[in-house]
Amino acid sequence: KAGVTQTPRYLIKTRGQQVTLSCSPISGHRSVSWYQQTPGQGLQFLFEYFSETQRNKGNFPGRFSGRQFSNSRSEMNVSTLELGDSALYLCASSLGGFSYGYTFGSGTRLTVV
Amino acid sequence: AQKITQTQPGMFVQEKEAVTLDCTYDTSDPSYGLFWYKQPSSGEMIFLIYQGSYDQQNATEGRYSLNFQKARKSANLVISASQLGDSAMYFCAMRETPGANSKLTFGKGITLSVRP
Fold first, then answer.
1. Nearest Cα to B35, choosing from B72, B62, B64?
2. Which of A21, A24, A30, B19 has CB 3.0 to 4.6 Å from A5, enough for a Cys bridge?
3. pLDDT tier for residue A95 given thresholds of 50, 70 and 90
4. Which of A95, A39, A79 is nearest to B98 (CA)?
């Protein structure tokens, strides 16, 4: 059974550019969540998508957006990159119910220079 | 106020010994779930164990067990017979209220180093 796949694994972008990260959840999982991990702030929730609808959103500026496709694959986009956006971005998939756990991918490490 | 508190800065344990990683939480929601994840240097978050707030017994998964003390709002992870591969960051996380608020709130994490 394939796990959660995140692409790319590493990314270097210039300040002001935009970036799109991709997450393919476990087959059958309808919920995809995104988290940002930095040394200073730790792990912070970005947003969650369930059946193509954003179900929950964290406290991040509008430069951070996401979407989910009909096959449950999700993308997150960060526009006008800032140096502080450098982080490990983790995607987690779940069946979506409260009793179910989350399976995380290996993350995309974004460096903004 | 922090919802998940992990105050141990770094832990060291001898191989084959047991170790306890502390986690306290804060919630007024009667229905919640507690998770422990392991994050090796590769970055992937690996699920270890889950405890629901209404579960009567402490959760166990192989060498991992959770010492759940609801009244004290603590959910400590116990790793028995430590192995060198257990060296990693360990995160405690909580999920409150089913439905719309389905996100995990993480603690700052604890670094565990297993000595041979």
1. B64
2. A24
3. confident
4. A95
- Of A48, A98, A103, which has the smallest distance from its Cβ to B47's Cβ? A103
Position B52, amino acid: G
Q: Rg for chain A (alpha carbons), in Å?
A: 13
Going by pLDDT thresholds of 50, 70 and 90, the confidence category of residue B2 is low
Q: Report d(CA A97, CA B51) in Å as an integer.
A: 15
Give B-chain residues touching A109 at CB under 8 angstroms: 43
Nearest to A40 by CA among A81, A100, A101, A86: A86
**Shortest Cα distance, chain A CAs vs residue B16, angstroms:** 28
Please report the pLDDT score of residue A1 as a whole number.
60
* Residue type at position B30: P
The residue behind tokens 């502390």 is B22
What pLDDT digit, counting tens, does each position of B72-99 carry? 999 999 999 999 999 999 999 998 866 5
Q: Is the pLDDT of residue B102 over 90?
A: no
Q: How far is CA A17 from the centre of its chain?
A: 18
CB contact under 8 A, A101 and B47: yes
